[in-house]
Specification:
The complex is a heterotrimer of chains A (345), B (321) and C (618). Chain A is an all-alpha fold and 345 residues long. Chain A is built from 17 helices and no strands. With 618 residues, chain C is α+β, with helices and mostly antiparallel strands. Classes of the chains: A mainly alpha (345), B mainly alpha (321), C alpha+beta (618). The A-C interface holds A 104-108, 110-111, 114-115, 128-130, 198, 201-203, 283-286, 288-290, 300, 303-304, 306-308 and C 8-9, 291, 294, 298, 308, 310-311, 313, 325-327, 373, 376-377, 380-381, 462, 464-467, 470-471, 473-475, 477-479, 482, 489-493, 496, 507.
Chain lengths: 345, 321, 618
C-alpha cells in the first residue's frame, strides 16, 4: 500500500483513544475485529474513560478548545507547517499579481526560448513550451491547490453524510451502506480512479468529483464509527428520551463530537487529493488545457531528467513535497491536540 | 468462529456481486454508451458494419441484464472470465501471467517493509518527541510526499545509469524472474518499499502509542516491570492486532501501489495491464482483474480475521449479544 | 491505412529503415559472411505485437503487428518502402512487376519462384490461397473496402504455374491497384490450407469464386482464425511452432515469442531474396512507455530505439539532423526520416453536432486555418523536424504519383486577415468573442443555419499526455481566441479520442488525436478513405460532390493526384497541421547504436517498413 492510497493516511490518524484504529479500518463493520476491540476495551476497563472525557469536554467546551490550541501552538513544526502552507497559498494566488508572466497565451510563449536556464527575466528559467517556470509553478499551483481543497471538501461532505447516515440510522441501512463501502474498498483505489477518469469526460468539475468520491471510502467508516458510538452515549439516549428528534440528535450531539475527527481527516483528504492529481498527471490524465497542474508539470519535467533542466524539476519538487509534508504535520498535530489522553499526560 | 466465518463468506459474495455490478455498469456511462469501446478498439476501422459485427460478436447488443446474467453464469459455471478485446488472450491467461509477477514484487517489498517499518514505528513511539523521532518522521513524511513516479525515476537515474549500474528488470513474461535474476529486483523492490514505508511505520507508531497510554501498561510499570518487558510483553503484542488487520487490507493497495513502479521500471504486471486495459476500453480485462483483486482482498481480510483470532484468543469468545 | 500516432501512445515499432533500390546498394559486406551478433530493437510504447497470421481483422491491423512483426517472416507479394521515398521495390517483392492489360481492366502477376521455409515454391497457388480466402471471408480482413478493388470489383481470376491474372469489372488506376490492393496480398503455403490439424482443404487449390472453394476457405478460416479466441492463430504460445515457421517467405523465422511481446527471430535459411540476414538473430523488446524505452537507451540495452523529440536540445531539419540527445549521444546516432502521412485535425460536419453549422462555412474554415502558424510550430515544437501540410498528400510525395500540384500554401498564417474575414461575413468581435450580427446566406452574412446572436464556438478534442501536442493545441487555441473564436478543449487519452471521433459523437467539432493519417499499408495517398461520403475514415462526415468526383478519377481513371490535392488544399475538408517527423510514432527520431552498420543507411522508412537483413555489426 503506497502513501498515495487514500485509505492510508486517514486511517492511522485516530483521533480519540476511544475509536481504535483497528475499528476504523475494519472493512466489515460488524466484524470480529470490532468486537475484539470492544472486548479489549472492556477487559481493560478502557471504554468508560473516554466517555468521561467526552462529557467533560461537552461541559467545558471553550476552555478545552483553548487548551487544544495551546497544544497545537506548542508544536513548533506544526506552526511552521501552517506558515508554510499559508505562504504557498499566497505564493500561488497572490504571486501572479506581483510577478507578471504570460501563462495563457501559448502563441506568445512560443517566441520565448524553451528550456532556458534561470536568468534575470525568468528566475526559474522556462519550460519546454517557453512559459516562465516561476509563473508556471504559481499557475499550476492554483489548480493543484484549489482542486485539492475542493476534492477534499467533497470527500468530507460525502464521507460525513454517508457515515452519519449509516452510523446513526443503523440496522438494515447501515448493513447495506457498509457492504457497499466494502465493495469499493476492495477495489484498488488507483484502478478505480483510472477507470472513472477514462470513462467520464475530463473536466475540472469531474476531476474534483471523482477524486473527492474516491477519497471518501475511508472517511465514511471513521465518521460512522463515531456516530455509532456517540449514538449509544448516554446523553444521546437522554435526548431521545426527552423527545428530541433524530435530526436534533445528529446536529446537537453526534456532529460536534465528530468534528475533531472531521477536521483531522480533512487535512489528510486534501493532501491525498493533491497526490492523486499528481498520479493522474503522470498517467497523462491531469488537468486539461489551458490549465496545468503540478503533477503534469512534474511529470513533464521528469521526462527531461537526463537533460539537466534542473530548474523545471527540483524547485517544484521541493515546493510540492514540503507542502505534502506540511499538511501531514498539521494533520498529526491536530490529532495530538484532539488526543484527550495525551492531554492528561 | 465457524458460524462467523460462514456469515463473512456470504457477505463477501454480496460484496463481490456489488463490485461486479458497478464495474459492469460503468462503461454504460461513457459518452458513446456501451458501444463506445467498439470504436476505441477498432479505431480507424470502425465502420458501422465493423462496429455492429464487433458488438454482435461480444454480445454488446443484448440488454444489460442479459449480459450481466451471461457473464455471471459463464464465470460461476464454467470459470470463464471472458476474452480480452485488446490482448488476444483469455482474461484468465492474462491474469495468470501478470498477477504472479505483481505478487512477487509486492510480496518481497511487503516483507521488507514490515521488517523495517514495525521496529522503526515502535522505536519511535517509545522515543516520542525525541530528535530521532522527529528526524525519522520527517524522512517518512518526505517519502509520503514524493510522487511515486518521481521517486522511481530518481532511483533509476541515480542507481541504474552512470557509475552505479544496478540492472532494471529485463522484459520476459516469466513469473520466476526473482529466482533467475534476483539482482534486477533490487531497484523496483526498493522503490516500492520506500513508498510503502511511511504508511506502515506511522501506523505502527500510532498503534504502539495507543497501547502505551493504556491503563494496564501503567499498571505493569507500577508493578515494577522493566521497560523492555513492558514493551515486548504488553505493548507490542497488543499493537499487533491493528497491524494484522492492516496487512489484511494490504492487498488492494498492493496491486494499486505497484502500478506506478511497474510502469516506470517496465516490469509489466497486473497494475500496468489495468491502466492499459482501461485506456483501451478493454472491458472484459478490467472487469476480470477487478473481480479477482476483490476476491484476493476479501481472502486477505478473512485471513486477517483468522490471524487475529490466533493472536488474541479473546476474539474467539465472540462477545456478541 | 493507419492512424498516425504521437510518440507517447504510439503503436508502432521503434525504428524502421528502408531498403534503397537494389542498384544503389553499396556492396560493402559480402552477403555470404557468417551472420553474427544480436540486433535488438525497441517496440513502440505500449504497442507489442500480438497477432501472427497476416490475414487479420481490424482489431489486430496495426503497424506493430504488420511491419514490425509479420513482415519479417511473411513477406507481402509486393514490397514497398525504399529509404525516405515511398515507392515500390521490385527486388524485394515475391513477384515481378505487375502487368496491366485490357485497357487497365486486368492485371497479371508473375511470381519469382522463391521458396517458403518448408521448401514449397511460392507460385500462383500461393497467391490464389490468399485471394480465395479473401473472397470467402472478405469482411474478416481489415483491408477490405466495400465496393472497391479486390475482391469487390474482381470479375474473375485465372491462374497457372507462376502466373495469376485478375480481371476487374471496371478500369482501375494502375498505381492505385498496386499501392492499395496488390500490396496487401500475402502468399500463403499449402501447409496452411487445412481445416483441422493435418486435414487439407481445397482453399489454395480451388477455382476462384466457386461455392466449393468458398466453403473450403471458410473451413480453413475457422480453423486458423475462427471466432474470438478460437482459432489456432489466437494461441500466442504456438507462434514459434513449426506450423507458423513453415510459411516463412521473408528473411527470418520466429523462434521465440511470449505474451509480453518479446520476440526472437533467427535467419530463414530458405529465404530466396537478394539479401540474407547478416545478424545471427533479431530480438524485439516491448516497452510500456517512452520513458521506459529511454531508460533502456541510456543503459545501452538496445541497438535500435527512439527518443521523444522534446529531449533534443538543438534543431535540425528532416534532411539534416542536428545534435543528438546528450544523454545517449556517446553511444547512439540520431536518424530522422520523413513520414508518409497527412497531418490534420478532423472537422465534424455531422449535423447533430451543434457547431457543425459554423464549420460548414468555408470562410470560417479559412479563418481557422489562417491562424495555424505552421512554420513557427515546426521551428519551436518540432525542433525543425517537420513539414508544412497544405494538402492531403504526404509532403514528400514524388511528382511521379502526384503529377502537378501546387506547393504554395493557399492560407498562410495571417490572423489579421482571418479576423477581417469574420468581420466581412457579419460577425461582431466587439466583446472579444465573435457574435453573428448579420444572419443570412449572402456573401457578407454569417451563412446558412447561423442565427443572429450565435457565438462562434468550436470544441477541440485532443489526445492528452503528449507534451508537444499540448503545446501545439494551446498555441492554436490561443490564436483562435485572439481573433474571437471561442475555443473549448476536451482532453482524452489517445485511444479514447480516436474512438470518440470515429463514432462521430456530437461532443467535438474539431478532433486532433495527435497527428493524422499514415498511408500504409495501402500506400496510395488518394482521398478514398478520407473524403468520400461513407468512407471508412471520413469521420467528420465530409460530403462534397466535386471532391468525390476528383477522388474517383484518381482511383478508377488514370488521373494523377494533383487536381484532387489542389482542390482539397483550397476546400479545407480538414484543418491541416504541421507534419512533424518527430511525431511519427518513434520512427522519425530514431536512435541507432554506433556499432551497427547498414548497407542501406538508417534513414527511417516512410512507409513504416523495416529491413533488418541489411544491418550488420562491424
Amino acid at each position: 500500500m503506497t502513501p498515495n492510497d487514500p485509505t492510508s493516511s486517514e486511517e492511522f490518524i485516530t483521533p480519540g483513544g476511544r475509536v481504535s484504529p483497528s475499528e476504523l479500518l475494519t472493512p466489515n463493520s460488524m466484524s470480529i475485529r470490532e468486537q475484539a476491540v470492544l472486548a479489549e476495551g472492556l477487559a481493560q476497563g478502557h471504554s468508560p474513560a473516554p466517555l468521561a472525557d467526552d462529557e467533560s469536554s461537552f461541559a467545558a467546551f471553550v476552555p478545552l478548545w483553548r487548551q487544544r490550541l495551546r497544544i497545537f501552538i506548542q508544536n513548533k513544526l506544526a506552526v511552521a507547517s501552517v506558515i508554510y502552507i499559508v505562504f504557498i497559498f499566497l505564493f500561488c494566488f497572490l504571486g501572479p499579481v506581483v510577478w507578471h508572466s504570460n501563462q495563457t497565451d501559448q502563441a506568445t510563449a512560443l517566441f520565448n526560448p524553451e528550456n532556458a536556464p534561470p536568468s534575470a527575466s525568468s528566475w526559474l528559467g522556462t519550460d519546454a513550451s517557453g512559459y516562465n517556470e516561476l509563473g508556471r509553478i504559481m499557475f499550476g499551483g492554483e489548480y493543484s491547490l484549489s482542486l485539492g481543497l475542493l476534492a477534499g471538501f467533497v470527500t468530507i461532505v460525502v464521507g460525513t453524510l454517508y457515515g452519519m447516515i449509516a452510523g446513526f440510522l443503523g440496522g438494515l441501512v447501515d448493513t447495506v451502506l457498509m457492504r457497499l463501502l466494502d465493495a469499493f474498498l476492495s477495489i484498488p483505489v488507483l484502478f478505480l480512479l483510472i477507470t472513472l477518469v477514462t470513462v467520464f469526460p475530463r473536466t475540472v468539475t469531474s476531476l474534483i468529483v471523482i477524486i473527492g468520491v474516491i477519497g471518501w471510502f475511508g472517511n465514511a467508516r471513521i465518521i460512522r464509527g463515531d456516530a455509532l458510538l456517540i449514538k449509544e452515549l448516554e446523553y444521546s439516549q437522554a435526548a431521545r428520551s426527552m423527545g428530541g428528534s433524530s435530526w436534533h440528535i445528529i446536529r446537537r450531539h453526534v456532529f460536534p463530537n465528530s468534528v475533531s475527527n472531521i477536521v483531522t481527516v480533512s487535512t489528510f483528504a486534501v493532501a491525498d487529493a493533491i497526490l492523486f492529481l499528481t498520479t493522474l498527471g503522470y498517467l497523462g490524465l491531469g488537468m486539461p488545457l489551458p490549465a496545468t497542474d503540478w503533477g503534469t508539470m512534474l511529470n513533464n519535467a521528469s521526462q527531461y531528467l537526463a537533460n539537466g533542466y534542473w530548474w523545471q524539476l527540483y524547485p517544484l519538487a521541493v515546493i510540492f513535497i514540503l507542502l505534502i509534508v506540511a499538511i501531514t504535520y498539521v494533520g498529526e498535530a491536530l490529532r495530538d491536540a484532539f488526543e484527550v489522553r495525551l492531554l492528561e499526560r | 468462529m465457524i458460524a462467523y466465518l460462514i456469515r463473512r463468506f456470504v457477505q463477501s459474495i454480496a460484496v463481490l456481486l456489488i463490485v461486479m455490478f458497478v464495474t459492469f455498469v460503468l462503461p454504460y456511462f461513457e459518452s458513446g454508451g456501451i458501444l463506445a469501446p467498439a470504436y476505441v478498439i477498432l479505431q480507424n476501422h470502425a465502420t458501422p458494419a465493423a462496429v455492429h459485427a464487433f458488438a454482435a460478436q461480444n454480445g454488446l447488443l443484448k440488454p444489460f441484464y442479459v449480459r450481466f446474467w451471461d457473464y455471471l453464469t459463464q464465470l460461476v459455471l464454467h470459470g470463464n472470465w471472458g476474452y480480452s478485446w485488446k490482448n488476444q488472450q483469455t482474461v484468465w491467461s492474462l491474469m495468470v501471467t501478470y498477477i504472479p509477477r505483481t505478487i512477487w514484487l509486492a510480496l518481497i517489498s511487503l516483507i521488507i517493509t514490515v521488517l523495517i517499518a514495525l521496529p522503526l514505528g515502535a522505536y519511535q513511539a517509545t522515543r516520542r518527541n525525541s530528535a530521532f523521532d522527529y528526524s525519522a518522521t520527517s524522512v517518512l513524511f518526505i517519502l509520503y510526499g514524493v510522487p511515486a513516479f518521481l521517486l522511481c525515476l530518481l532511483i533509476i537515474t541515480w542507481f541504474s545509469i552512470g557509475t552505479i549500474h544496478l540492472p532494471t528488470p529485463p522484459t520476459t513474461d516469466s513469473a520466476w524472474l526473482i529466482f533467475t535474476d534476483p539482482k534486477a529486483f533490487i531497484l523496483p523492490v526498493a522503490a516500492l518499499t520506500l513508498l510503502s514505508l511511511a504508511f506502515l511505520s506511522r501506523f505502527m507508531r500510532s498503534a504502539v502509542l495507543d497501547v502505551l497510554v493504556q491503563d494496564y501498561i501503567r499498571t505493569a510499570k507500577a508493578k515494577g516491570c522493566s521497560q523492555r518487558r513492558v514493551l515486548f510483553r504488553h505493548a507490542f503484542r497488543n499493537a499487533m492486532g491493528p497491524i494484522v488487520i492492516i496487512l489484511g487490507l494490504f492487498v488492494p493497495g498492493l496491486f494499486g501501489g505497484a502500478l506506478i513502479v511497474e510502469s516506470v521500471f517496465n516490469y509489466e504486471g497486473i497494475g500496468y495491464q489495468t491502466v492499459y486495459a482501461a485506456t483501451y476500453s478493454d472491458i472484459p480485462t478490467v472487469l476480470g482483474i477487478t473481480l479477482l483483486t476483490t476476491v484476493l482482498t476479501l481472502v486477505g481480510n478473512l485471513m486477517a480475521d483468522v490471524a487475529l483470532g490466533v493472536i488474541n484468543p479473546r476474539v474467539r469468545v465472540e462477545g456478541r449479544s | 491505412m493507419q492512424i498516425k500516432h504521437r510518440l507517447r501512445l504510439a503503436t508502432t515499432i521503434g525504428l524502421a529503415a528502408g531498403a534503397l533500390t537494389l542498384g544503389l546498394i553499396a556492396p560493402g559486406v559480402s552477403g555470404a559472411a557468417t551472420p553474427s551478433g544480436t540486433l535488438t530493437f525497441a517496440e513502440g510504447p505500449g504497442a507489442s505485437p500480438n497477432y501472427i497470421f497476416p490475414y487479420m481483422s481490424c482489431t489486430f491491423f496495426s503497424v506493430s503487428n504488420i511491419n514490425g512483426f509479420q513482415d519479417l517472416t511473411y513477406r507481402p507479394l509486393y514490397w514497398f518502402g525504399t529509404g525516405a521515398a515511398a515507392t515500390y521495390n521490385e527486388s524485394l517483392s515475391l513477384a515481378t512487376n505487375p502487368v496491366m492489360g485490357n485497357a487497365n481492366h486486368s492485371v497479371t502477376i508473375n511470381t519469382k519462384g522463391w521458396k517458403f521455409a518448408d521448401g514449397q515454391t511460392i507460385n500462383a497457388q500461393s497467391v490464389m490461397f490468399f485471394l480465395n480466402l479473401y473472397h470467402a471471408e472478405k469482411t474478416n480482413y481489415c483491408g477490405y473496402n466495400a465496393g472497391y478493388g479486390i475482391p469487390d470489383q474482381v470479375k474473375s481470376v485465372t491462374s497457372s504455374g507462376n502466373t495469376v491474372t485478375i480481371n476487374f469489372t471496371t478500369s482501375v488506376n494502375p498505381n492505385w491497384i498496386l499501392y492499395n490492393y496488390l500490396s496487401e496480398i500475402t502468399p500463403f503455403p499449402d501447409a496452411w490450407s487445412v481445416s483441422a490439424a493435418n486435414t487439407p482443404a481445397a482453399c489454395a487449390s480451388g477455382a476462384y469464386g466457386t461455392a466449393a472453394t468458398d466453403a473450403a476457405c471458410t473451413a480453413v478460416f475457422n480453423y486458423l482464425v475462427g471466432k474470438t479466441g478460437q482459432g489456432i492463430a489466437s494461441k500466442l504460445s504456438t507462434y514459434a511452432d513449426s506450423f507458423w515457421q513453415s510459411g516463412a517467405s521473408g528473411p527470418y523465422v520466429l523462434t521465440h515469442f511470449d505474451t509480453l511481446g518479446n520476440a526472437t527471430f533467427l535467419p530463414n535459411k530458405s529465404y530466396s531474396g537478394p539479401q540474407k540476414s547478416m545478424v545471427a538473430s533479431v530480438v524485439e523488446i516491448p516497452y510500456a512507455t517512452t520513458a521506459a524505452e529511454q531508460v533502456a537507451l541510456r543503459q545501452g540495452k538496445i541497438d535500435l530505439g527512439y527518443v521523444d523529440p522534446t529531449n533534443l536540445t538543438s534543431s535540425g531539419s528532416p534532411s539534416n539532423p542536428g545534435a543528438n540527445w546528450s544523454a545517449v549521444a556517446s553511444r547512439y546516432n540520431l536518424e530522422v526520416g520523413a513520414p508518409w502521412s497527412v497531418d490534420y485535425a478532423a472537422y465534424n460536419f455531422n449535423p447533430k453536432s451543434p457547431e457543425a453549422k459554423f464549420l460548414d462555412q468555408l470562410y470560417i474554415r479559412q479563418a481557422l486555418q489562417m491562424t495555424v502558424d505552421q512554420p513557427l510550430m515546426i521551428k519551436q515544437i518540432f525542433k525543425g523536424y517537420g513539414y508544412q501540410q497544405i494538402n492531403p498528400l504526404p509532403p514528400i510525395t514524388s511528382a511521379a504519383i502526384s503529377g502537378a500540384v501546387s506547393k504554395k500554401n493557399p492560407y498562410p498564417y495571417n490572423p489579421n486577415k482571418a479576423a477581417a474575414l469574420l468581420k466581412s461575413h457579419g460577425w461582431s468581435i466587439a466583446t472579444g468573442s465573435a457574435v453573428c450580427a448579420k444572419p443570412g446566406a449572402a456573401a457578407n452574412e454569417c451563412g446558412k443555419g447561423i442565427s443572429k446572436g450565435d457565438v462562434l464556438t468550436v470544441t477541440l478534442e485532443y489526445g492528452s499526455g503528449i507534451p508537444s501536442l499540448q503545446t501545439q493545441v494551446s498555441t492554436e487555441v490561443s490564436e483562435w481566441n485572439a481573433i474571437g473564436i471561442t475555443a473549448k478543449t476536451l482532453a482524452e487519452p489517445f485511444n479514447k479520442v480516436v474512438g470518440d471521433c470515429v463514432s462521430n459523437a456530437a461532443t467535438w467539432s474539431i478532433c486532433l488525436w495527435g497527428a493524422g493519417w499514415i498511408y500504409a499499408p495501402d500506400y496510395y495517398p488518394s482521398g478514398e478513405s478520407l473524403f468520400v461520403p461513407g468512407a471508412s475514415f471520413n469521420i467528420g462526415a465530409y460530403s462534397n460532390p466535386t471532391m468525390t468526383k476528383l477522388v474517383k478519377a484518381t482511383t478508377f481513371g488514370t488521373t494523377k493526384l494533383g487536381a484532387f490535392a489542389n482542390y482539397a488544399a483550397q476546400q479545407l475538408p480538414v484543418l491541416y497541421q504541421p507534419n512533424g517527423t518527430n511525431a511519427y510514432s518513434g520512427q522519425g527520431i530514431g536512435e541507432v547504436i554506433k556499432t551497427l552498420k547498414s548497407k542501406i543507411g538508417f534513414t527511417p522508412n516512410s512507409l513504416t517498413n523495416f529491413n533488418p537483413e541489411y544491418y550488420y555489426f562491424g
